[in-house]
């Protein structure tokens, strides 16, 4: 069953209106008819309703709330900006894996520079996150943060926030050995191609938990996706 995100909170027993693009897709592409069951999502809550077509626009009569994402702790992926479309690829699949937020990080070794065109790129990231959340049947779209540097990341960490850094120079602490209590915010940092610079490692040393992901050195896009999935599962276990 196809899911659509709505801006306003649905109310059981009332109509929810789909925006123009979603309405067009539902009626002209999917060719749904009156009475079709539709899933709606808003800020982590999922609703079931039935389609009503009124003057060629799609409205959904909300029948019941069926699911709410539990408080499982917030996971924010801080991904080093990669070449070409690597950052978009990571965002797409990490959204499917359960991240709650995404912050692109302009590292010392990032080949691509998003600083002059980030507002345009940000809209693209928001669209990718929404589509990935729809596809994976999530009821929450990860928020897209500002473009940060490592300095910004360290400066903005709260006292109770946890920062996990996947680092090829770490040999002892494995990512699978981490444990979480299921609350608070966990920031996951993945470097760009070439990894983190010595300056960045020194800057992070007092605030971060450095972990290894095994003997292999993973590509930046592989590491971001795999580590997002692993941390989400560990955080869910901590909640249980």
| Uncertain ranges | none
Quaternary status of these chains?
A: single chain
Helix/strand-derived class? alpha/beta
| Number of H- or I-type helical stretches | 6
Describe this structure in words.
This protein is α/β, with parallel strands linked by helices and 240 residues long. It folds into two domains: 2-68, Ribosomal Protein L25, Chain P; 74-238, Alpha/beta knot (3-Layer(aba) Sandwich). It has six helices and eleven strands. The chain has helices at residues 20-29, 86-97, 118-135, 150-156, 198-204, 220-239, and strands at residues 3-5, 15-17, 37-42, 45-54, 57-68, 74-80, 101-105, 143-144, 162-166, 185-190, 208-211. Strands 8-7-6-10-9-11 form a six-stranded parallel sheet, covered by helices on one side. Helix 2 runs parallel beside helix 3 and helix 2 packs parallel to helix 6 (220-239). The protein is elongated and about 60 Å long. It starts with a strand and ends with a helix. The model has no long low-confidence stretch (mean pLDDT 92).
Would you kindly provide a brief summary of this structure?
This protein is α/β, with parallel strands linked by helices.
Outline the fold blueprint:
Layout lengths: L2 E3 L9 E3 L2 H10 L7 E6 L2 E10 L2 E12 L5 E7 L5 H12 L3 E5 L12 H18 L7 E2 L5 H7 L5 E5 L18 E6 L7 H7 L3 E4 L8 H20 L1
Parallel strand pairs: 1-3, 6-7, 6-10, 7-8, 9-10, 9-11
Antiparallel strand pairs: 2-5, 3-4, 4-5
Helix pairs in contact: 2-3, 2-6
């Amino acid at each position: 069953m196809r899911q659509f995100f709505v801006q306003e909170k649905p109310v059981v027993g009332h109509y929810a209106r789909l925006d123009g693009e979603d309405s067009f897709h539902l009626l002209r592409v999917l060719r749904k008819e009156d009475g079709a069951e539709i899933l709606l999502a808003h800020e982590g809550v999922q609703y079931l309703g039935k389609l009503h077509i009124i003057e060629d626009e799609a409205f959904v009569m909300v029948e019941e709330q069926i699911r709410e994402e539990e408080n499982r702790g917030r996971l924010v992926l801080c991904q080093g900006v990669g070449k070409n479309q690597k950052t978009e690829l990571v965002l797409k699949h990490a959204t499917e894996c359960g991240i709650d937020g995404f912050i692109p990080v302009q590292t010392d070794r990032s080949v691509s520079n998003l600083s002059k065109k980030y507002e345009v790129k940000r809209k693209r990231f928001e669209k990718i996150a929404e589509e990935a959340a729809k596809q994976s049947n999530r009821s929450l779209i990860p928020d897209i943060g500002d473009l940060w540097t490592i300095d910004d990341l360290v400066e903005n960490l709260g006292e109770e926030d946890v920062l996990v850094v996947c680092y090829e120079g770490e040999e002892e602490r494995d990512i699978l050995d981490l444990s979480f209590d299921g609350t608070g915010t966990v920031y996951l940092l993945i470097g760009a191609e070439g990894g983190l610079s010595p300056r960045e490692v020194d800057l992070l040393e007092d605030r971060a938990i450095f972990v290894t992901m095994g003997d292999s050195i993973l590509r930046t896009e592989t590491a971001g996706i795999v580590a997002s999935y692993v941390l989400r599962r560990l955080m869910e276990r901590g909640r249980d």
